[in-house]
Amino acid sequence: MKAIILAAGRSSRLYPITLELPKCLLQIGKKKLIEHQVDWLRRCGIEDILVVTGYLNHLIETVLGSTVQYSYYSDYENTNNLHTLYSVRDEMDGDTIILFSDVLLSVNLLESCINSRQKICLIIDSSNITDKTMRIRIHDGLICDIGSHIAVEAADGNFIGVGKFSKDAVNLLVNQMRDLVDNNIYINDYYTIALSKLSLKGTKIGFIESLSEPWVEIDTHDDYDKVINSSFAHE
Question: Residue 154: what pLDDT?
Answer without folding.
Answer: 97
